[in-house]
């Protein structure tokens, strides 16, 4: 259940992916984006949102696990293998985690994309850096509501992902535990 978005290759990929997804993206492809960003902004551009990503992972994982456990307590109090409860609990955990951490994700995206139109609209010249600057800029762009832009899409994206992850985890936990119990119960050689 670990979010691997903070690993180095995924982190670089996140910056490239988000920049290529921008409306009227100036990049012709992956290599063009990597080379252009490195040439114009330096390699550090791929790490501008690193602290925001790490900061986002803490509440995301905390809410994720707490929600899953609370949902299991309600839907499956005896903690038996029950795929339906694992899917529903996993989906709820992903949905709530995504919703709660959307403001950090919005700031991370702004740091990763450095959208010129957005930055110039609030008189930011050069490159935006740091989580605090990103928070101030997002607030200046649209108030509190701006922190939740894309929340619905983020929730819808996370729900199936976490539902599948938890149901697979619970299946293997059940399967391996059952196998171990069967081996322990089997009569040994005499």
TrEMBL record:
SUPFAM superfamilies: Mitochondrial carrier. PROSITE patterns: SOLCAR (PS50920). It catalyses: Fe(2+)(in) = Fe(2+)(out). GO terms for molecular function: ferrous iron transmembrane transporter activity. It is found in: Mitochondrion membrane. It is a multi-pass membrane protein. GO terms for cellular component: mitochondrial membrane. Keywords: Ion transport, Iron, Iron transport, Membrane, Mitochondrion, Transmembrane, Transmembrane helix, Transport. Solcar repeats lie at residues 1-74, 81-175. GO terms for biological process: iron import into the mitochondrion. It comes from the Eukaryota. PANTHER family: MITOFERRIN-1, MITOFERRIN-1-RELATED. Belongs to the mitochondrial carrier (TC 2.A.29) family. Mitochondrial iron transporter that specifically mediates iron uptake in developing erythroid cells, thereby playing an essential role in heme biosynthesis. This is Mitoferrin-1. It comes from Gasterosteus aculeatus aculeatus (three-spined stickleback).
């Amino acid at each position: 259940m670990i979010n691997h978005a903070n690993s180095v290759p995924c982190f670089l990929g996140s910056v490239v992916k988000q920049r290529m997804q921008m409306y009227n993206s100036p990049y012709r492809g992956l290599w063009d984006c990597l080379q252009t960003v490195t040439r114009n902004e330096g390699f550090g551009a791929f790490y501008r949102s690193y602290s925001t990503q790490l900061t986002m992972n803490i509440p995301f994982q905390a809410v994720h696990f707490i929600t899953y456990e609370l949902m299991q307590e309600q839907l499956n109090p005896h903690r038996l293998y029950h795929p339906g409860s694992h899917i529903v609990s996993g989906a709820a955990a992903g949905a709530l985690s995504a919703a709660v951490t959307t403001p950090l994700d919005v700031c991370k995206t702004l740091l990763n994309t450095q959208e010129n139109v957005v930055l110039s609209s609030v008189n930011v010249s050069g490159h935006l850096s740091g989580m605090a600057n990103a928070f101030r800029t997002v607030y200046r762009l649209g108030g509190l509501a701006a922190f939740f832009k894309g929340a619905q899409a983020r929730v819808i994206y996370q729900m199936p992902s976490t539902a599948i992850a938890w149901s697979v985890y619970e299946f293997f936990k059940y399967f391996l535990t059952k196998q171990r119990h069967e081996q322990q119960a089997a009569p040994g050689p005499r």
